[in-house]
Amino acid sequence: MQTIEEILRAKKIKVTPQRMAVYSILKKTDSHPNVEMIYQKLKPDYPAMSLATIYKTVDVLKKVGLIQELSVGEGGLRYDAKIRPHSHVYCEICGKVDDVEQYPLNELQDRFLLEKVKNETGYDVSIVQLYFFGKCPQCSINKETKARGA
Amino acid sequence: MQTIEEILRAKKIKVTPQRMAVYSILKKTDSHPNVEMIYQKLKPDYPAMSLATIYKTVDVLKKVGLIQELSVGEGGLRYDAKIRPHSHVYCEICGKVDDVEQYPLNELQDRFLLEKVKNETGYDVSIVQLYFFGKCPQCSINKETKARGA
DNA sequence: ATTTCTGCAAATGCTTTGCATTGCA
DNA sequence: TGCAATGCAAAGCATTTGCAGAAAT
């Protein structure tokens, strides 16, 4: 089991408290936070950390491949330290993002499929993202409740 | 074959020249333009049309289901008047977006898969988006050329 | 006639940038 | 010590908002 520090060091980037803190937050959570959410989570422990640093840090972590960036269509981007293939489901009401493990995204990342896409489009494809959009359980319940007049 | 005007009227939204123009552009192109690109395309014929109107118009068209919104992670959103299931491939170098027809996205939109996702996550899923990221043919060639020192 | 849409300009808010200071290697 | 990262504040942009006039039903 590598420590956060060891992981960063292995990627050959300078190890700073800010980078460890951001990566650590992303490792621990499964809420796919955006920059502002990361900022809020870090505030209690790192009151001096600036938003600009978080923007720069997620860029670095993304470039070395430690985190992935999700674009769910709400303006800002979301971040996820889970690198293994999986897809995401987005609640169009409250904005929550959850992982979808079961669907075999690995099948989509299969070399054969990527070949097919390359043959059709000419693109050299390296990344596949699958998003589901809908309503999360909580928001579904709220709407039902409202509909019943409560 | 319905005219643009008939299509808008069928959706029960007010028919204006601006809405016809925006929808017409999106029907004709396959370049998945963002708001700014739509604005530039319309400028010659509608020099008075404002960007704000385009923002409002794509919102309306999206809400009535005439167009879909794509989020490819570059900040702004892209628009597509093709409603039939298909996926997209994004060039990470030049930002071009192309359709991917061949891959059976309908399979992904299959009720069975959506049920599986609902069972795992509890989300009520209505939309599926599949994105491929990579390098388009032109940008691949350019890089090769550069690499050869030309 | 009424309601809704458009276009303008201002306001907002997110993200980036420049630079002096700090901190890692 | 040298180079890179941080934090701050300002700048930069894309998007939204409010409202008066125009247009659609």
Description:
Two copies of one chain form a homodimer. Chain A is α+β, with helices and mostly antiparallel strands and 150 residues long. Chain A folds into two domains: 1-83, Orthogonal Bundle (Arc Repressor Mutant, subunit A), CATH 1.10.10; 84-150, Dna Ligase, domain 1. Chain A contains seven helices and five strands; from the N terminus they run ααααββββααβα. Chain A has helices spanning 4-10, 17-28, 35-42, 51-63, 105-108, 111-121, 137-147; strands at 68-70, 78-80, 87-91, 97-100, 124-135. In chain A, a hairpin with a 7-residue loop joins strand 1 (68-70) and strand 2 (78-80). In chain A, helix 2 packs across helix 4 (51-63) and helix 3 crosses helix 4 (51-63). The longest helix of chain A is centred in the middle third of the chain and has 13 residues, at 51-63. The A-B interface holds A 69-73, 75, 77, 89, 91, 98, 100-103, 108, 113-114, 116-117, 120-137, 140 and B 69-75, 77, 89, 91, 98, 100-103, 108, 113-114, 116-117, 120-137, 140. The structure holds a DNA duplex (25 and 25 nucleotides).
Largest sheet of chain A: 3 strands, mixed
The CATH architecture category of the largest domain in chain A equals Orthogonal Bundle
- Overall mean confidence score, pLDDT of chain A: 90
CATH homology group of the largest domain in chain A: Winged helix-like DNA-binding domain superfamily/Winged helix DNA-binding domain
The number of domains of chain A is 2
What is the CATH first-level class name of the largest domain in chain A? Mainly Alpha
Which percent range describes the beta-strand content of chain A?
15-25%
For the terminal residues of chain A, how far apart are their CA atoms?
A: 50 Å
Main-sheet strand order of chain A equals 4-3-5
Total number of beta strands of chain A: 5
Low-confidence stretches of chain A: none
CATH topology of the largest domain in chain A: Arc Repressor Mutant, subunit A
The greatest inter-chain interface is formed by: A-B, 38 and 39 residues
